[in-house]
TrEMBL record, chain A:
Keyword Mitochondrion found: no
GO BP, sorted A to Z: transmembrane transport
Pfam families reported for this sequence: BPD_transp_1 (PF00528)
Protein name as annotated: Sugar ABC transporter permease
ABC transmembrane type-1 domain mapped to chain residues: 66-277
The entry's keywords: Cell membrane, Membrane, Transmembrane, Transmembrane helix, Transport
From TrEMBL, chain C:
Protein name (record): Extracellular solute-binding protein
Organism (species): Neotabrizicola shimadae
One GO location term (cellular component): periplasmic space
Subcellular location per the Swiss-Prot or TrEMBL entry: Periplasm
Keywords recorded for this protein, A-Z: Signal
SUPFAM superfamilies on file: Periplasmic binding protein-like II
Length: 288, 278, 425
């Protein structure tokens, strides 16, 4: 026994989480680097070097899948952040029916993604869907929301926003509540307008919430799969394919090594985007 | 507040209400109406009043389908959700607490692992390989552990940022009073985390209850079916029975709704009361 | 790994004492959730349990399509497969790695009833038969609405030109000439896959050359035709307006009700019309996909799915007995009774009833005449790319030109060939 007093924050607190995480997440992840270098049928592995990666980059859909992934992630995460903050401000301003609106906005977060996807693909049906019938009602042309190759990805991103903005709003409401009213009072005394108060007080002070919302929704967007799969399965053709769905398709086809290589590529892409962002956020946090 | 301000508030409120109703409520009304239709009526996909209400008939048909599989699915999903969320709260808060309070070189490692957990897409096939090696493949407790492993990073991240708002004085005072680390954590810290814990419970239980892909891979077998997998029953490649499909969506939506209604007051109260008192 | 050995020893012991010990067995059965398949499975298992009260069944359904493929592959590879399961024959069967994952069924007594043409598509690379037929053979071609044809005074086309001429008249009459349903992406492949009879008529050794990596879709004009056809019907504006969002079920409704004149599809779909639109069954006709010349007009044929037993099944003997019984004429008649006669069953002595629906009657003559059928490519070559259905959606929606699409598909099949370890790839 050492004489050093044990820390009141012992590291064994981390142990239960660490064991589960290591065995069921880290080990498979590390193993995936090996399996990505093999031709694998789940029983036998045959080492083939970087062939899977070469194959993957030969896939003509990959480049599109890659850009789609980035577009989708930036679009959903950006819109969730902006609209989430605006909604949170609106829903903490003492509006009539505020409680009801909060529930209404948050509710889609609760619904099964598959269920939402099925519902919206029905609502977006080109001839029978409610959305186009509504447009026709006010004299606008029908839109092929999910059947037009140039539109499908954006339509799904909209549904993602619809479903996910409630969570961003919730995080922001929590963040706003943590801001002391003194700041607003001080700003008001200084004669700041409503808009100035928003930009000078709310936005900087709600920063921790922004970091959470941006990081979570960006990672979620980059990995997004369920909703796309439920709505278009990457179609029409490959036009709404993202990396996760390309990977899944290789997996479905039984190309386990190839699919695992895709996993590694997705991981690298996410790291490439998120790590600099996190570093930037952390640096700014120290500045504050 | 001036009268003009009040009127403007009132008008904004009304507009917001109307927009929210169209955007957020119509899809649910559609689910509900379609769930009440006959098969032919539903297959036209129109947003109309059902020609003939058969909510109850559709309900019993979905329930009875495949030997009351939905009931079994409810049971399984509940076990998985409750087990995993309980562990996520305790283990996640413990990690977040140490991570925030103790600043040493290990912190970087833990924080890196949190990032890894958030970022890295799970490697499905190698995970099956590990689960099989442990004899956990195709078991409910294996599924619980998987959900814990996948949800930990989010829990830790959420707890870490909120623990930062709890003054150290509180735990230091308890330590000086002679409390053991576990006592400090469970008696002092955890109760203070209640607002964020409620959020975490709601968010994670919804996520786990609604998870579709993971049970599909790690829980094959009829006896292990989960609620989301029952959507498969009615989404056959060849014939789609929209009324039953939407009835199933409706039924699958109800448990999260109950959780929400139950916790709603606490979420709003916890957040508007200034979250954590210092 | 001692457990399976124990149970195998136990099973052997039980088998040895024979009639003395009656073992209660529950066989698990994994089937796809296509209503026709469910009807087959329910009627077969009920009859089998009635005859063998000590054997009961636990039926589990899975998704169809690519997602179902994945479930089957994963569960087989991880040793979690049910005792008996149904799955495609041909190239998809080959992708299961059958020589190691599936039980040898070549010595079942009732294999004698099974037509050789079926046995060849459930034979693994080591020459062992590993399945029995489950359902009826199918033709891939074009469903048409007889009433509409009558009204417009059209006759069944023997060449693609005639087909397109019919389409022009149908469009003039204000009807949809060709229904397409790309929400169910698999339905988009028909124009390409069902054209194989015509490919083979022009290039008889295409399948062999294709397997050896010598012939390609993009460089074989006859093989390109399927892709071209898909493009032509789109460019001519012959499709239903909601082709991108319509489903298989919509397609069968449109063609059987006369909303649309044609729908390229497999004949198993007759069961769908029988179940969902029984009143329209009499108006539904069928013809083979027309090709370049009227002299060489014939039908591309799909073999039925197979029933298989995984090699690792703990109830191997009972499962084999059940599967053996499925290959009898009795079982075949039960299937006909359960889901109707949508095509020939590949069991000797299992005859179709006389009063088949008109679409089936349209199909049968192709089978009765020598040289008027050809198996689909997936039964002649193990090489089938997983992305064909996305590529055909692209061509059929005007996203990608036919020539480019064929080249893309040639590239897609490379992966499958490599995974199978075929020579020359």
């Amino acid at each position: 026994m050492t004489t050093r007093r044990p820390s009141p924050y012992p590291y064994w607190f981390v142990l239960p989480a660490a064991v589960i995480f290591t065995v069921l997440f880290l080990v498979p992840t590390v193993a995936s680097f090996w399996f990505s270098l093999t031709r694998w049928d789940l029983i036998n592995t045959e080492f083939i070097g970087l062939d899977n990666y070469r194959q993957f980059f030969k896939e003509p859909f990959l480049v599109q899948g890659l850009t789609n992934t980035v577009i989708y992630a930036v679009l959903t995460s950006g819109s969730k952040t902006v609209i989430g903050l605006l909604l949170a401000v609106l829903l903490t301003s003492g509006l009539r029916g505020q409680g009801f609106l909060r529930s209404v906005v948050f509710f889609p977060v609760l619904v099964s993604t598959i269920g939402v996807g099925i519902t919206f693909s029905v609502l977006m049906h080109p001839t029978k869907g409610l959305i186009n019938l509504g447009l026709a009602e006010i004299g606008l042309p029908r839109v092929g929301w999910l059947t037009e190759a140039s539109l499908a990805l954006y339509s799904i991103a909209f549904v993602d926003l619809w479903k996910g903005v409630g969570l961003a709003t919730l995080i922001y409401i929590a963040g706003l509540a943590a801001i002391s009213p003194d700041y607003y009072e001080a700003a008001r005394i200084d004669g700041a307008t409503r808009l100035q108060r928003f930009w000078r007080v709310t936005v900087p002070l709600v920063r921790p919430a922004t970091v959470t919302v941006v990081t979570l929704s960006l990672i979620g967007g980059l990995r997004s799969f369920d909703l796309i799969w439920a709505m278009t399965r990457g179609g029409p053709g490959f036009s709404s394919d993202v990396l996760a769905s390309v990977i899944y398709k290789q997996y479905q086809a039984g190309f386990y090594g190839l699919s695992t290589a895709g996993n590694v590529i997705l991981f690298l892409l996410i790291a490439l985007i998120i790590l600099p962002l996190t570093w930037w956020f952390n640096r700014r946090e120290v500045d504050l | 507040m001036t009268a003009r301000d009040a009127r403007r508030q009132w008008i904004t409120g009304m507009i917001a209400m109307a927009v929210a109703t169209v955007i957020f409520i119509v899809p649910f009304a559609f689910i509900f109406l379609t769930a009440a239709k006959t098969k032919q009526d539903a297959s036209r996909l129109l947003f109309t009043w059902p020609e003939q209400w058969q909510l109850w008939q559709n309900f019993t048909e979905v329930l009875k389908a495949r030997n009351y599989m939905l009931l079994l699915a409810y049971f399984n999903s509940t076990v998985i959700t409750v087990g995993a969320v309980a562990a996520l709260v305790v283990f996640g808060a413990m990690v977040g607490y140490v991570l925030q309070r103790r600043r040493t070189g290990w912190n970087k490692v833990i924080y890196a692992m949190v990032l890894v957990g958030l970022m890295v897409p799970p490697a499905v096939v190698p995970t099956i390989w590990v689960l099989q090696g442990l004899g956990l493949f195709k078991t409910i407790h294996g599924m619980i552990l998987i959900q814990i492993a996948y949800g930990l990073a989010f829990s830790v991240l959420l707890y870490r940022s909120f623990i930062a708002t709890i003054p150290r004085d509180l735990d230091e005072a308890a330590i000086i009073d002679g409390a053991k680390p576990l006592q400090v954590f469970f008696k002092v810290i955890l109760p203070l985390l209640k607002p964020v814990t409620v959020t975490l419970i709601v968010v994670q239980s919804i996520a786990i209850f609604n998870d579709f892909t993971n049970p599909l891979y790690y829980l094959p077998g009829k006896e292990n079916v989960t609620v989301q997998l029952t959507l498969y029953n009615f989404q056959s490649q060849f014939t789609t029975q929209f009324n039953l499909l939407f009835m199933n969506i409706l039924l699958v939506t109800i448990p999260p709704l109950i959780v929400f209604i139950f916790f709603n007051r606490q979420i709003v109260a916890g957040m508007t009361a200034g979250a954590v008192k210092g | 790994m001692t457990k399976p050995i124990h149970s195998a020893a136990l099973a052997a012991a039980i088998a040895l004492v024979g009639g003395l010990a009656h073992a209660e067995t529950t066989l698990s059965l994994l089937i796809d959730n296509n209503p026709e398949t469910i009807a087959f499975a329910e009627s077969l298992t009920a009859a089998y349990t009635a005859a063998n009260p000590d054997v009961t069944f636990d039926i589990e359904q899975r998704a169809t399509g690519a997602e179902g493929d994945n479930i089957v592959k994963t569960r087989l590879a991880t040793g979690e497969m049910a005792d008996v399961f149904n799955y495609n024959s041909g190239s998809l069967f080959q992708a299961l790695n059958p020589a190691t994952t599936l039980a040898d069924l070549s010595d079942l007594p009732n294999q004698a009833n099974v037509l050789d043409s079926f046995k060849s598509v459930v034979t693994s690379s080591d020459g062992v038969v590993r399945g029995v037929p489950f359902g009826a053979a199918m033709g891939g071609g074009i469903f048409y609405n007889k009433k509409l044809y009558e009204e417009l005074g059209l006759s069944v086309p023997k060449t693609w030109e005639e087909f397109m001429a019919n389409n022009a008249k149908i469009k003039e009459a204000g009807k949809v000439p060709v229904a397409q349903t790309y929400k169910d992406t698999w339905t988009s492949q028909l124009f390409v896959l069902a054209d194989y009879f015509n490919v083979q008529a022009e290039v008889p050794d295409f399948a062999a050359e294709y397997t050896e990596n010598k012939a390609k879709y993009a460089t074989t004009p006859a093989a390109m035709q399927g892709f071209n056809h898909l493009e032509e019907v789109f460019t001519a504006g012959y499709l239903n307006e909601d082709f991108g969002a319509a489903t298989f079920d919509d397609g069968m409704r449109m063609v059987s009700s006369g909303e649309a004149a044609h729908y390229p599809m497999l004949t198993f779909a007759i069961a769908n019309v029988k179940q969902n639109y029984p009143d329209n069954l009499g108006d539904l006709g069928f013809f083979a996909q027309p090709g370049a010349s009227a002299d060489k007009n014939g039908l591309t044929v799909w073999m039925p799915a197979g029933l298989y037993v995984p090699a690792a099944s703990p109830n191997l003997e009972e499962a084999r007995k059940f599967v053996d019984w499925v290959a009898t004429v009795d079982a075949c008649n039960l299937m006909i009774g359960a889901a109707g006669a949508s095509g020939p069953y590949l069991i000797k002595g299992c005859e179709l009833p006389a009063d088949v629906p008109p679409a089936v009657a349209d199909m049968l003559p192709y089978f009765q005449e020598e040289g008027r059928t050809a198996p689909a490519l997936e039964f002649l070559s193990p090489v089938k790319g997983p992305a064909l259905e996305q590529i055909t959606v692209e061509v059929g929606s005007g996203i990608r030109p036919a020539a480019e699409a064929a080249a893309l598909y040639d590239q897609d099949v490379e992966k499958q060939a490599k995974q199978l370890g075929l020579p020359n790839w």
